[in-house]
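re: that chain from earlier
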Amino acid sequence: MEETASVAVRFQEVDATQLVWHGHYVTYFEVARRAFGRRWDLDYPLFVRHGVIAPLVHLELDYRSPARLDDVLEATARLVEPASAKLEFEYDIVRASDGRLLATGASVQVFTDLEGTLLLTPPGFLVERLTRWEPSWKPPRNPAPR
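^ sequence. v structure.
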């Protein structure tokens, strides 16, 4: 399960060499994660309505090639099938004009209540969505050859 968002590199995101400053790639991951949340109904406003938040506790980012001023980027977030009360995403950022891979990464978010107490079981809304999405996690079955 994934979603892709387009991001145009803005002037304020580049350094003097007109390359995107490294810290902005984290923002591009966030743009993709929010696009995923809106598409699959798993976004931050939903969390708060259910009395939980999902702070980021781990982030990985590997730079492959630089993005430049005026590039249009395609940032993709893929949800890894949850095995516990957390959200794990994998990311790719590619330049739209040539499909070149610019960055990859991953993040982990945990669930807490609004006071910051860690939840050890998945919130009900996540369980409901995982049940609904179950067919999406498994590869399609191919009939056995005869």
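Residues 20 and 141 are 43 Å apart (CA to CA).
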